[in-house]
Structures are given as structure tokens and as C-alpha cells.
Amino acid sequence: MTQTEDFTQHDANVKLIMEAVAGLWPKFGPKGMPPECIVEGAIRGAGAVLLSLGAKPHDVAGILDDMAAGFRDLDPPKLRLVHSRASQA
Description:
The protein is mostly helical. The chain is built from five helices and no strands.
């Protein structure tokens, strides 16, 4: 498998999980769950998975730092697209 194929598979896996997490909003939002709680719960759950598999807290924090940097640079149209898709259900 080439590095490009690895990234392609990784991106497909990430998209699958991203869509699953986005699906939490239509399930819990109408019941009064604040979206920030859904996001925080998803992040904490992901961190717990990594820690249970042997990752060090510093490494998990590094992943979150990288993700935060990506969100700071994300252009607003992509944010609206994700938001509008999650709110359609």
C-alpha cells in the first residue's frame, strides 16, 4: 500500500466516524442536549479510546492541538455545510 493509499483510507475512515458523530445532533439536540456537550463528549470518548490503547496523555493532547489548529484555519463555507447537514434530520 502506498502512502497515498494510506491517506485515502484514513480520510475515508475519518469521514465515516465524522458522519456518525454528526448524527448525534439530530438524535440528542431535539431532546435539549446542547451541541457543545455532544462535541465535548465525542472528544472525551475519543481520548478515552486512545488512552485505553496505550497512548500517553501528552500524545492525545498533541492530536487535539493539531485538530484545533485545523479548525482555526477551516474556511466558513465548510463549517456551514457540516452544520446544515447535521440540522437537516
